[in-house]
Every structure is written in C-alpha cells, then in structure tokens.
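Consider this record:
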Amino acid sequence: MVCGFLGCDANPLNPLLASMPRILRMPRVAPDGSSWVGDFIHLMVEESRRQRPGGEAVLERMSEMLFVEVLRRYVDMIPAGQTGWLAGLRDPAIGRALAVIHDRPAVPWTLERLGEAAAVSRSVLHERFVQLIGQPPMQYVAQWRMQLASASLRDTDAKVADIASVVGYESEAAFSRAFRRAVGESPAAWRRARRVRTRPVAAGAAHPN
C-alpha cells in the first residue's frame, strides 16, 4: 500500500474539493489502454526509498502530476448529465468561462463579457452555469476572487489595497466589505489569525510531544 497526501486551501472556496467524491477508484489500465500511472507509482516508491538529494522536491512534483492525471481520468469517466464543477470543465462553453475567470480575475467581468469569452449568449451562459456549477456566474466570480485574496493575505506581505486591485476591486473599502461578507471577518483579521496558526516554533522552544 502506498500512501501520500496533497495539501490545498479548503476555505473560503475550493470548487475542486467541493465537487470531488470522497473516494476515487482508478483502474490500473486507463480506457485508452495506457497503464503509465501504475508504473509512475512504482517510480515514486523507488524515489522515496533511495532518499537522494532533492528527493522531496521530486516527489512533490510527481504527486502533483499523479493527482492531475487521476482527475483527468475521472473527468473522462463522468457520465453525461452529471453536474458539478468538474462536469462544468468538460462543457465547452462553461469550461471556457471558468478558464477566463481563473486566468484573469482582475477583469471587470459582467455576464455579457463572460458570454462573449465563452462564445454563447448571456442567457445560455447563465442557464448552463447554474445547471452545472450550481450558482450564477457572477457569484462564482466573487467567490473565486475571495479564494485568491485569502491565499495572498496568508502567504504574502502585500498590502490589502494591492491585493484588492489584483483580484478586481477598484478600492480597498469595496474589497474589505466583500471579503467580510464572504468570509465573516475583515482581511486584516483573516491575515492575523492565519499568521498566528502557521508561525513556526522558535529554535530551542519547548513544545509538547
């Protein structure tokens, strides 16, 4: 048995986690006949055993590649008519809309502009988006911006005003109001709480076993 883990942000919005089943069972041989995933896992086990310099970095990248491939296989196996974020990725119009939202969060998106990017009408985009993703496009845009902003607040020392601009808000005040509505606390409070939780133990400091 080979065990491992990948860490990711769960809050305030992680559409991938929300749409995944609790268990994914992947056959060793893919529908197209390829079996490289099994061979790849053997390579990962060998890399772990040898403990060569740089091995942790190599295993991290290999784990990401394996996870992406498993997701791609899962998407290929999703039956027609199933809904959810991963099913939305497979839909041509909704997949294009999701791609531009994720790639360019700072764009002042409107339903009309998203429809143009997805090559469908506003009404078709809205209907398909709600059907597959479970919420209107503009609500998804707002939540995705909050996910990006929360990661920046936790992982960087960027000013709140700069983060607001990067995720598509014209003013720090507008961003702070939106962040509080989505997350339940101000950007500054979110940052302070996460920095305290992730602060490393000082050298020589006592800590419980």
About this structure: Residues 80-135 form a domain with the Arc Repressor Mutant, subunit A fold (CATH 1.10.10).
